[in-house]
Model the fold of this input.
Amino acid sequence: MDRLSPSTLDRLSAGILKPNYDRTAVATGIIHLGLGAFHRGHQAVYTDALLRDDPRWGILGVSLRSPDTRDALQPQRGLYSVTASDGTGDQRRVIGALTGLAVAPEDPAGLLARLADPAVRIVSTTVTEKGYSHDPATGALRADDPDIRHDSLNPGQPRSTLGFIVGGLRLRRQAGLPPYTVLACDNLPANGHTLRGLVIAFAELLDRDLARWIADTVRFPSTMVDRIVPATTDADRTEVSAALGLDDAWPVVTEPFSQWVIEDTFGGERPAWDISGAQFVHDVAPFELMKLRLLNGAHSTLAYLGHLMGCQTVAEAMAEPDLAGLVEEMMREEVTPTLPALGGFDVTAYRAALLQRFRNPALKHRTVQIAMDGTQKLPQRLLGTISDRLARGLPITRLALAVAGWMRYVSGTDEHGQPIALRDPLSSQLRALADQAGPLANRLAPALLSLASVFGRELPSNPRFAGAVETALDSLLTAGVRATVAQTRRAAR
Ligand code: CS2
Done:
């Protein structure tokens, strides 16, 4: 089969949308750090839809680690397909928004030079939670992070997200150019505000005047991003290529739903992403809190408890009646009352739509993918909700089980004694704590709660929280996951 590329686009199967603009006229106005499936299935799609009207916003897609995406997409000159599937039908579209592909470690100085190009007015990020070199419990910079240490000593050859963002701004300031707007697109609370604090803290390690210039001139709008985009599998490649009639080495397979809410505080011109369906608002916080706590909180709960029950995918976890019931009740009874009111927004319909999205049989979203990096995800997904409820004297039964599910998961073996492969930046620390504590809840729970970068200092010393988590973990370890989920549902009613 021929490869998808500009010269084969005419041979695409009928019914597949393709770029409706002249790609050779598209300039690079955005540099995106973190060229994963999520960016390609979300922000790049919104951008693709406006390039015919405004070709200034092509995207240079940068991978910060692996060359895999560049290697797959370079022969396709950046073209790839996005398939949106709800289980009954597929919509396919070829995206042409990537004007270039780069692998940062191959030429860090070259990337800094690109960042200094005045035509680039936005630098966006999807580098996952752990890509911000911060302490998830507090949002503070981890100055002892090896990449941060390296970048503060070698600012001309950075490795980290912060090193590149600050390095590019430094060159622009030296050249007397205006800065770019920095657009965080990861699932972090107040992601723009958090990234701003980290960028300034890192810049302070290099040059106080630069840090002040950044604080005074650079804009960091916060965003709420939402689309479920599982990692691409070989089966996806085969199926998509057959449907396209052309070989696509790295297609994106996702759901029809997509949402992007952006704080409208750009430093200069910005793409009219609202024309392609994004929402520019004054304050993203209520949208962000709702999404992180309802969608991502439920996702992590389904991932840990579901994986322990033997479910490979979110859809399989949703087919477990007690688990699906527990998650629905947790969202309705425990999470929703902590959310600020969003005028005119129907949160009941939002929850129902989420459960429907989780059931999407076409997605095959693996529980292990969502379970990874739990230490970076728990604070904004579950612990913030728990703190809010404790402060109001409200019960946390189901949320505590979700946290205990994470503890059971990171303890290292499943109910059949099989090892669970842990993927987390703190995995060696987790393993050591779990090994030392052994499989006893009254040792394992306090050991894991001592991780201040995840739980902070206040929460673990709250006896209601510590007690609820330990009780749930004890039940998971002694009665098993299935029985505990069913029992917790009854107890929480
Ligand atoms: C998921 C998210 O992998 C995960 O942890 O919870 O990537 C989720 O699919 C997206 O946030 C949906 O917008």
About this structure: Residues 187, 226-228, 295-296, 299, 369-370 surround D-mannonic acid (CB under 6 Å).
